[in-house]
Write a structure and sequence with these properties.
Distance between the termini: 86 Å
Radius of gyration: 29 Å
Number of helices: 3
Helix content: 40-55%
Shape: elongated
Strand order of the largest sheet: 3-4-5
Structural class: alpha+beta
Order of helices and strands: HHEEEEEH
């Protein structure tokens, strides 16, 4: 009888170990699923930042173009600072080419990096060293973006006499 009691007790203990293993397997499966979800979330966030960078960069390019083309003197000038795009004081009535100075979507604590020629701002670019996801679907004036290795290679530079093309592309977005 005593032998049967001991065998019965050992049988009762066996399922406890099995339940522990079952819980551990379930946790491993949940962790793998969460890791996959995190990767998808990170990629979706990068895609959203990429789209925002294209929008902000083109807004800067367009604002720099409007500033340049509306220069009251015969010799056209680029802005000295980005804040001149938000408040152009060269006219009797304040003119705004840009609503506000936008941050870099990939480095929100910092602004876009300015591209300067002869002491004046001709364009902007991001600081990000991330590799772009998008490889097609760029506008004609963004053709150099196809070969970019990093987001900072996406340079939004205003070329003189292209304002009409930029405004037309901006209105179609």
């Amino acid at each position: 009888m005593r032998l049967i009691n001991e065998q019965y007790r050992s049988l009762l203990r066996a399922p406890r170990g099995f339940s522990y293993i079952g819980v551990m397997v379930t946790l491993v499966i949940a962790a793998i699923g969460m890791q996959g979800a995190a990767v998808m979330w990170q990629q979706q966030t990068q895609r959203a930042n990429e789209a925002l960078l294209l929008e902000v960069g083109e807004a800067y390019r367009l604002a720099i173009g409007r500033y340049y083309e509306s220069t009251p003197q015969p010799v056209k000038q680029y802005p000295l600072t980005l804040s001149e795009l938000t408040e152009d004081k060269r006219f009797p009535v304040l003119k705004r080419h840009l609503r506000r100075v936008y941050a870099d979507p990939f480095a929100t604590k910092q602004g876009m990096v300015t591209i300067v020629r002869d002491g004046r701002i001709i364009g902007v670019h991001s600081q990000s060293l991330q590799v772009p996801i998008r490889s097609t679907g760029y506008q004609e004036f963004q053709s150099s973006f196809k070969s970019a290795k990093h987001y900072r290679d996406w340079q939004f530079i205003y070329e003189p006499n292209t304002l009409a093309d930029l405004e037309e592309a901006w209105s179609k977005r």
